[in-house]
Prior knowledge:
The protein is an alpha/beta fold. It is globular and about 45 Å long. It is 49% helix and 14% strand. A four-stranded parallel sheet has the order 1-2-3-4, sandwiched between helices. It contains five helices and four strands. It has helices at residues 11-14, 17-32, 44-55, 76-83, 100-116, and strands at residues 4-6, 36-39, 59-63, 87-90.
Amino acid sequence: MDTLDAVICHRADERIPEKAKANRDNWFHIAENGGVLVSAFIAEAEKEVKRKIEEVDGKVILLVNEPFGKIFKPWGHDFEQCEKGQLLILAPDRLLPEGRPTWLLLNGMADWISRWY
């Protein structure tokens, strides 16, 4: 089962433990079964999901708000994940400002990518 899904943790969903658990269980199932999860992994809940996905060698597409420099190479853990084929980083061609509008844009892009595939 290869599939793709967006990891987006809304504050409202986090207030409903059953819904938050169902989302996490779904993402973990996708990761364990060869699927790919896409997100900017901004919120702490999303970062925790990413850590757990990486523990089972799940595949991740990371959306970032900064363009790659001329000579870009991820550092440390991200480098190791890229080297193993577990992480793909997608960056814009120009800097996107930090803040809620950009995070909403990146979440929308993650959702679009997951539906397009």
